[in-house]
Request: fold
Amino acid sequence: MYLNRNQGQYDDWYCVVIFPSRSLEPSDKTTHRIFLNSNQVQRIYLDELGTPNQQPIGINLMQLTVASEKAMAEQAKQLIERVQLEETGTLPKNEIIDIITTIAVYKFSSLSREEVEAMLGLTLEQTRFYQEAKAEGREEQKTEILRAVVPLLLKTGMTVEQIAQQLNVDVEAVKSAAQQSA
Reply:
């Protein structure tokens, strides 16, 4: 699709198609067989790449996304240990650990924060994922408080500007809360 939309811009190209396993590759390849049989397309099957310790960290991250829950927990823990011990190249270690944590949190969405922390051997409060989620929670809580308080303050005769000043928030946030409560 990309090459079709950008015709003439790319005379030579190379494509890598990544599948969790060979069994998930579509069986009907008729439409794209000219490409699939060329040396311009490479297929990679994550479950055939060998043990995680033999692979680059980037490949390990992809493998985490398709690992079973049982295998994922152990692989994530080992990968965190590996990242902390090895040189990681251009991507900082804390960013790689944030990626691992994010994958684990999404994969184990039914577990509590404490359970995910215990499984990974980390404190999630130190990760960017947790900090962003916490900030979002604070913003939602602040919005809910404004929705409840602003109508009451408006009834007392205070102006939007006075409310914003007293609550130390933007005038736009007060106006938005006033409109949502109306």
Notes: The chain has three domains: 1-48, 53-126, 130-181. The chain has a mean pLDDT of 78.
